[in-house]
Amino acid sequence: MSVRFGSPGYSPARGATARPRPRFRAMLPVLILVSLVLLVLSRIGHDSIQSFRDRTDSFVAPVLASLFKPFEPLRWAGRQVPSMFDASRELEKIRDENQKLKGWEWRAKELERKLQEVTALSRTVRETTVDFVTARVVAHSSGAFVRSATINAGREQNIRTGYPVLSGDGIVGRIVDASGVAARLLLLTDLNSRIPVLIGTNGARAVLAGDNGAMPRLAYLPADITVAAGDEVVTSGIGGLFPRGLRIGTVVETVRGLRVKPHANLDTLEYVSVLFYQSPQLELTDAKRTERSADAGTSAVSRTEPAPK
Amino acid sequence: MTVFGKITAPLSVAVLVVLSALPWGVPADSRFVLPLLPAVAIHYWVLRGKSGTVPEWFAFAAGLLLDILTNGPLGFWPLIYLLTYVLAALSSPFAHDGPIRRWFLLFAAMSAVAAAAWMVTSLYSVQIADWQPFVWGAMAAALAHPLFSFVFRAVDATPPRRSNVLFERGT
């Protein structure tokens, strides 16, 4: 390569070896401006951004699911390494838990029998069972300020915005966007997540508030209530988005105050179950989304169509 | 430059973008390093003088794709990748004195990018974001750079540059 004096690649210090310095085109400030505008529109939740997401979600989820298939063995191998080291400790832990659970099983049967008797006497309305669908997590948010995941099931599987999402260990979040074949769930650690909860055996009420950390905090905790580390935290059902009594986690004491450690491992979610939990609140949260999806031509469920019982 | 030589750089960035979005089971606090890997690739190719094959619009498109795939706020990663592009382009005249100098330039760029990402995140969330994931992400991306350099150099189909001054007739 020969670079002549005065040409873009010439450097007096290095002679002909210097590479041409990239020139910034007029496009660069325009692209930066577009990025900033998109960021602001995303922040205010503009309808155009939401409908764009609804359109893209329908094809992104299947593409990601198929792209991840070749890497599945790699991921499996990665998960085996720590479990091999912890196998003996894990076995010991399971034995202890099994011993405790046997005691609890007997107690639960006894309580169930008593509950049936009391229910029969008081003529309480029986609670209906809630159906669910299980879906696979195909993408995780990678940013430092969003805690969400995408699953490969959407409105075609009757999933609607607002439905609670659980793993085998407990609640993980709720659906915030549902397109035709994919849905986005907001994890309970996200900054925008707020879940009314009950704490411990005395049933203290609070709001579980995510702050993008690993353990969400307890907000609006009454001052006269004592909460100790190790207390169980469950959904209270207030607000109507979540049914009462879903397991969330346990209270832990940290340097930043009382936090809740979720039972579900939110970092390694693979399969999750979406509860078809109908509530009056759902009509308010899902209605707008359904209208927008219908406009985008991706809706498979009409607004009035009920979810399966 | 061959067709393969032209697509190597954009293809490597695109592959890293897709890999960043897949659920690897990485803890949430450590996951910030994943989207910085395409930034490492952009920085590498621009420093290598491949800004023609990884232009600014491609950096923007890669960021937008990542935002769509991860359901993040649109515009965040385009902004970060464009910043990486600008930093790499500005520092490219100083990148001729070996791999250590290039690594140092990348480390400085990743530190600046992480600081910018932290600021944008704090502004977006309207609260001071935790700085630790950003620092960890920048450090991990800088540590991953030698490995990426090795791989990119191996797959780069462009003929190696003649490093000595070329004497022309009459010089």
List the helices and strands and how they pair.
The complex is a heterodimer of chains A (about 300) and B (about 170).
Chain A: H1 27-44, H2 47-68, H3 72-85, H4 87-122, E1 132-140, E2 148-151, E3 164-166, E4 171-178, E5 183-187, E6 194-199, E7 204-209, E8 217-219, E9 232-235, E10 247-254, E11 257-262, E12 271-275, H5 280-296
Antiparallel strand pairs in A: 1-2, 1-12, 2-5, 3-4, 3-12, 4-5, 6-7, 6-9, 7-8, 9-10, 10-11
Helix pairs in contact in A: 2-5
Chain B: H1 3-21, H2 33-47, H3 56-70, H4 76-91, H5 99-125, H6 132-155
Helix pairs in contact in B: 1-2, 1-3, 2-4, 2-5, 2-6, 3-4, 4-5, 5-6
How would you briefly describe this protein structure?
The complex is a heterodimer of chains A (309) and B (171). Chain A is α+β, with helices and mostly antiparallel strands and 309 residues long. Chain A is built from 5 helices and 12 strands.
User: β content of chain A, as a range?
Assistant: 15-25%
Mean pLDDT over the full residue set of chain A = 78
Largest sheet, strands/sense/barrel of chain A: 6 strands, antiparallel, barrel
Look at the structure and give the mean pLDDT of chain B: 83
Gyration radius of chain A (Cα, Å) is 26 Å
Poorly predicted ranges of chain A (pLDDT <50, ≥5 residues)? 1-17, 298-309
